[in-house]
Specification:
The structure is a single chain. By secondary structure, the chain is α/β, with parallel strands linked by helices. The protein has 16 helices and 23 strands. The strands form 7 sheets. It has a 6-stranded mixed sheet, sandwiched between helices. The protein has a 6-stranded parallel sheet with strand order 16-14-13-21-22-23, with helices on both faces. It has a 3-stranded antiparallel sheet with strand order 18-17-20. Helix 2 links the parallel strand 4 and strand 5. Helix 3 crosses helix 4 and helix 10 packs across helix 11. The chain is globular and about 60 Å long. The chain starts with a strand and ends with a helix.
């Protein structure tokens, strides 16, 4: 009989973490978190274990050298979701059991299943254990339950719609019982997890229903996040400028449309630049572009004009002949990029335009870099934006930086202390900016 094989996703240890020690190596009761998870896998019958690691991988390997595990190294700054996606083929070939630990410890088994479905080659089942180390009142233990923290023999493509619906209903009922039991242990409930506030998890949104308004509250971090978002969206000092980066217009539609009702200036940066540029008839070479969103880009430009919003786009770009830090580079007009070249950052003229708008602002929201800042040769634009925000902040502006890449930017350039607030939320912040009600926050405020 073959040994049971487990893959542990010890990811989510991105460089945005202030600690130099990967989170999975933090200790609870003398045992590292990844040790707890390895023990969970072995308790579930797995003998042959592989740990998927990202940032801090060498430290993890050294710490686990005596644990008889194998290693698979994924790219740096790997988040939990990306770990599942990128390791999908590896998991398919190697895993009977998956155990994960990461920045999003309450991600559900159903979510993992959906991610894995992108990579499934056969219709079969796989055991998924989502294990976290909890540390209430200074002592550590692993929570495993039907909350998605423990789900066994999750079926994939062979399940019928009726079976999936029945399973989902059963999980929801189990979640209610689980949270009712957890709530019975406490006199009050404190939620300090802004990073998961946009998810209706049992341990965030549901459990709060078992406490009255006087006995449920935000933690200090959550309170700061809520106040920062509220100040940007509802207590606006003008001019209000939002800098939106990112590669896809489609992923920022709702955010942009909501911001068009609030901002004075909207700066479009990052990969989205080239979709707008092509929509206006420009030549963008092989730059990233959503060809099916050209009409959308034109529509957003029209809406901005109708609402009196100053939509600020790049006029020049730093281009490269390959997607590499070592590629040949030059500057050119953003709408005159030659064939075989792609834009990887803004150019000096655009830096000046963006900086001038930012420095005149009194409320600033930054979400997304201006280019591929992970490559040192394409950091200049993002650094220029960050420095302009710091200068505006010194002159009295309120500045909120949020979203993983933007946070990584200000940390990389040593600018975090010069802005008003750096959000810990990625998806939570984006959904708040979109104007959505976040379940984790609503549950406390009800």
């Amino acid at each position: 009989m073959n040994k049971l094989k487990a893959v542990i996703l010890a990811a989510g240890e991105g460089k945005r973490m202030k600690s130099k020690l990967p989170k999975v190596l933090h200790k609870v009761q003398g045992k590292t978190m990844v040790d707890w998870v390895i023990d969970t896998a072995r308790d579930s019958g797995a003998d042959d274990i592989c740990v998927v690691i990202g940032h801090g991988g060498e430290q993890v390997k050294e710490a686990l050298k005596d644990r008889n595990v194998k290693f698979a190294v994924q790219r740096e700054q790997l988040g939990t979701g990306h770990a599942v996606m990128q390791a999908g083929d590896f998991i398919e070939d190697n895993a009977d059991i998956i155990v994960f630990y990461g920045d999003t410890p309450l991600i559900t088994a159903e979510t993992i299943k959906k991610m894995l479905d992108y990579h499934r080659k056969e219709d079969n089942s796989i055991t998924i254990i989502s294990a976290i180390v909890d540390n209430p009142a200074g002592y550590g233990h692993i929570i495993r339950d039907e909350n998605g923290l423990f789900a066994k023999n999750v079926e994939h493509k062979d399940a019928t719609d009726e079976e999936k619906a029945a399973a989902k209903k059963a999980v929801k009922e189990s979640q209610k019982e689980f949270t009712k039991k957890l709530a019975s242990y406490a006199d009050c409930y404190v939620n300090d997890a802004f990073g998961t506030a946009h998810r209706a998890h049992a341990s965030t949104a549901l459990i709060a229903k078992y406490f009255d308004t006087d006995n449920k509250m935000f933690g200090y971090l959550m309170e700061k996040e809520v106040k920062a978002v509220d100040k940007v969206l509802n207590d606006i000092q003008r001019p209000f400028t939002a800098i939106m980066g990112g590669s896809k217009v489609s992923s920022k539609i709702e955010i942009i449309e909501n911001l068009l009702n609030k901002v004075d200036n909207l700066i479009i940066a990052g990969g989205m630049t080239y979709t707008f540029t092509k929509a206006m008839g420009g030549k963008i070479g092989i730059s990233i572009c959503e060809d099916d969103k050209l009409d959308l880009a034109l529509d957003l430009m029209k809406k901005a004009k109708e609402k009196g919003v100053n939509l600020v786009l790049a006029v020049d770009a730093k281009i490269a002949d390959a997607f590499s830090n070592d590629a040949n580079t030059k500057f050119c007009a953003v709408d005159e990029i030659p064939d075989g070249w792609e834009g990887l950052d803004i150019g000096p003229k655009t830096e000046e335009i963006f900086a001038n708008v930012i420095k005149e602002s009194k409320t600033i929201l930054w979400n997304g870099p201006t280019g591929v800042f992970e490559f040192d040769n394409f950091t200049h634009g993002s650094r220029a934006v960050g420095e302009a925000i710091v200068e505006a902040t010194k002159n009295g502006a309120f500045s909120l930086v949020g979203g993983g890449d933007s946070v990584a930017c200000v940390n990389k350039f040593g600018l975090a202390s010069g802005v008003s607030y750096v959000s810990t939320g990625g998806g939570a912040l984006l959904e708040a900016i979109e104007g959505k009600v976040l379940p984790g926050i609503a549950a406390i405020q009800e």
